[in-house]
Each structure stands twice: as C-alpha cells, then as structure tokens.
Amino acid sequence: MTANWSLASSSSPITLSVEVRRKSVTEALYQARNGETSEPLDSCVNSIRGQDSQFDRKNEARIILQLSPYLARCIRRIMSIERRYDPDPAAVFASALSLWQECQKRANEDKNLNFSESYSGFDQFMREIMRVATQFETWACQHIDFAELNHVWPYFLEGEFGLKCLSAMLPTGLAAFDESDCLRVAMLMRLPIIHDGKLPLPVDLIAPNPAAGSAFKQFRIQSVRNEIEGEDISPYTWDDEPFDENFDVPYFALYGVGEDGLLEHIADRKALAEALKLARKIAPGAEFAK
Length: 290
Known about the structure:
The protein is of the alpha+beta class. Helix content is about 45%, strand content about 15%. The chain folds into three domains: about 1-65, no CATH class; about 90-190, no CATH class; about 205-280, no CATH class. The protein has ten helices and seven strands. The longest helix has 22 residues, at about 120-145. It is elongated and about 70 Å long.
C-alpha cells in the first residue's frame, strides 16, 4: 500500500511517497516531533490514520508513547485518540485518597468534628468517600474534555479534589453529594468541561472586530443571570454558584466593546450557539477565542 504525504518543510513543500509500515510511520512522526517538518505531530497522525486502515489505535498509542518525553502529554494525547467513558480505578482511588486526607486535616483542626458520629459509624464515612470519588469520576468521563487537560488525571485529582470538594460542601455533608456537586467541584478545579448545552457553564468570549473603522473594536459574549427578586443582571462566572437560588437560569449577552472598553449591549440569546451565530452575522469573520 502506498500513500502520498505532503509535509511542508521550513523552506518549501516536499512530498514523501512511502510504503505504510511501522518503520515509515515512526520515521514520519519523528520528523514532525524533531522539527524537520512544520507539520504538527497530530497532523501526521491524522494523515497516517486517513491513509492506512491497518494503522490501528494501539499502534498509534504505542508510537506516541515512544515519541513524547512528557508523560502528561502522552496520556493526554492517548485520551484524545478515543474519548473514554469508563471510570478509571486509579482516578477513583486518587480522588478518594485526596478527600480522605482533606477530611483528616479538617478533623485535626476541629476537635469537635467526629466523622463516626456524623455518618453513624466510621465504616459508613469511608463508604461515602468512595461513593463520592466514584460518582465524580463517572460524571467526569461524560463531561470533561480530557484532550484539553494538561495534567496526569489521577495525580491532578490527588492534589486538588479533596480541597475543592470540601470548598463546595462541609465534610459532614458527603452523603448529600450528587451530580450538581460534581459540576461545582469541576468548576472550582477549573476543569475543561464540555460545552454542549447540558450544563449551566460560564462563558466569557471576546473576538476582535474584523471591520475597520467600526465603533466597536471587539465583540464579547458573556453568560449572565437575572435576580429572581429584583431587576439586577449579574455576570455568571467560574467563581459563582451554578445553582444559586437567588438567580434565574443563565443566558448569553452579546456586547460591542468600544475604544474606551465600555460595553454596549446588543442582544441576548438563550443558547451560546445562537449568540455566536448572531455575532458572526453582525461581524462576518469574527473569531472568538476558545
């Protein structure tokens, strides 16, 4: 089987005609990694994947592990090959350990904190810790974009999960932990949550105005909420409570940003996709930063 690859070098485009086999695949990927071509590593992988049906995902994972000097990048890249949905036992253990350690720290600081009493026995306290860790990992597999994660997932959980979990709730309230708490903790951890319209996620996007001479130098889409008792409109940010009973559901406001940085309200939309569509209609070519 023969495949033609067009790999752009730093000086001029070159075309490589190679027999698709493991040696050639590895050489091509090494070229990309070592800067012998400006073609990114991911693009080389995708080119090979498109040309050779025999280049399976196991080989791809094996080669990338050989190529990358950074373990975190290896794991992140492999996770992006095929989105995983099954909870990782290592991640569950890391979350449970982190939560256990943070609870013990709180108990050492507060001598009135008695987990055995709060959970009708220490065994039940440990069951709740494992339940919370398992539920969060299950939720994360459905809602976190692991391709955008720059950390080794279990290590990151071990370092962050316990502290952020107990920032969202009391250590005596783990029995009430549910999916809404999963979102709270994920937001506190600043995880790359998939924006598919299923969760109330904060948004703050800015795009330069491609039209010269316009009164607006930028366009901004921001998630906002209305107070239930009152007329105030407040920005909805990553530091806010996603299920605050004082506010209605978030929606998306489109603003024009003047030379002086002041915002001029243009319109509101219920969905982010609708707000983006309107912005691009007003300013064709506007590209909002991710």
